[in-house]
TrEMBL record:
Gene (UniProt): coaE
Keywords per UniProt: ATP-binding, Coenzyme A biosynthesis, Cytoplasm, Kinase, Nucleotide-binding, Transferase
Lineage: Bacteria, Bacillati, Actinomycetota, Actinomycetes, Glycomycetales
Organism of this sequence: Glycomyces endophyticus
EC code(s) of this entry: 2.7.1.24
Protein name in the entry: Dephospho-CoA kinase
Taxonomy, superkingdom: Bacteria
Amino acid sequence: MLKVALTGGIGAGKSTVAKQLSELGARVIDADALSREVVAPDTEGLAAVVSRFGPEVLTPEGALDRAKLASIVFNSPPARAELEAIVHPRVRARAREITDSLPEDAIVVQDIPLLAETGQAPGFHLNIDVEAPRELRLERLAARGLDRADALRRIDAQASDADRREVCDVVLYNDHDVHELERRVALLWDERIKPFAENLRHGHAERRPEKLQFVESDPAWFRRFEHLAARLRRVMGPSAVRIDHVGSTAVAGLPAKDVVDIQVTVVSLHVVDAFEEALGDAGFYGTVTFDSPKPEFPDIAQWEKRLYGYADPGNIAHLHFRSIDTPGQRFALLFRDWLRADPQARADYAQAKGVLAARSDSVTDYAEAKEPWFDSEGWPRANAWAAEHGWHAPLC
Ligand SMILES: CC(C)(COP(=O)(O)OP(=O)(O)OC[C@H]1O[C@@H](n2cnc3c(N)ncnc32)[C@H](O)[C@@H]1O)[C@@H](O)C(=O)NCCC(=O)NCCS
Ligand SMILES: Nc1ncnc2c1ncn2[C@@H]1O[C@H](COP(=O)(O)OP(=O)(O)OP(=O)(O)O)[C@@H](O)[C@H]1O
């Protein structure tokens, strides 16, 4: 089951996107609707609200006077926090009940206005942020009958666009007309959401971009790493002793294959096997270890590791599970830190990759392109750097 979260500031267009996704086949769960359901008349949620805020927040008919309660909570952060403490756990419980009742092959989209504020992003396979300029949002809210002062209070009570972007994998800009939004939603559905759901259904992880090519350094790689690390931490907890961004995408300014490399240090590879099912539920699958030779270490036996990928076609990642303090585990960190610290190493590496990208995209060519990394005795030059900087390199 693919679990997608949809968020965005008030008036950005979440409900409009959710409706389009529903028409494309997604099963939508609307947190706003659930937040009304759990405080409906005669619910224990409403009783809890009345117990905290008093009967003056009820209408004569005994329902919640939402406008009255809004005037209290959007003028007092502590009061809002107390209301959220009543409503949010009940909304999440209902969302879990509904999700659990859906077929395993469903694509579930949860419309969660406060995704960033409530730290729920790592619990979803894909997080989408719907964004629109503040003034456009205010115009839309005004057209919907919300007065500007109230809309501004709510906007100020929410996370910023930057906060939402930080936790989301995709940003859907909704700053054109509805037809353009529909086009963008359909593209996202066809290009990413559906293939992602297919991969999950078949237990498949994307191994590499179609064409092996080196692209300019991209800041999105660091955010992609953070998102995957947060999902891994949620699955493995302290069993993932450390989770590091390694490889070329971890070195700012370096061209790299559009594949985020993550090293997950474990006490033993048996730990990985114990988490195999939970990792699969989160979209991480063991993939065959590349059939290509390990060009970096022609004379050194392949160090044991488990290689996993992630099922999201828009976030291709290689997860290298290695046991703590083994040569492979230490070298991945040393190589990254050497490239980060040594401008000449970066220049050599970029030049070699440029040559490779120009010449071919076969992995075997990679071996020659990595020549500059070996000293006369055939040892990776990172060792000399490590010795010079007091790094205990694993290969000495
Ligand atoms: C205060 C209440 C009664 C006002 O009801 P009203 O019908 O006016 O607004 P509604 O619930 O439809 O929310 C409309 C929009 O307001 C914004 N909003 C609602 N609650 C909050 C909040 N706690 N913090 C920031 N923004 C909020 C969201 O963008 C939401 O989409 C209601 O918003 C509420 O119960 N809020 C607390 C529960 C909550 O956090 N809900 C958000 C989804 S779980
Ligand atoms: N691209 C668009 N062009 C014109 N109107 C739009 C567009 N997108 C959304 N709207 C309108 O703007 C208003 C707000 O959109 P919507 O309800 O989807 O936002 P929302 O993020 O769900 O808001 P809330 O946080 O209040 O639930 C709605 O009336 C919607 O029809």
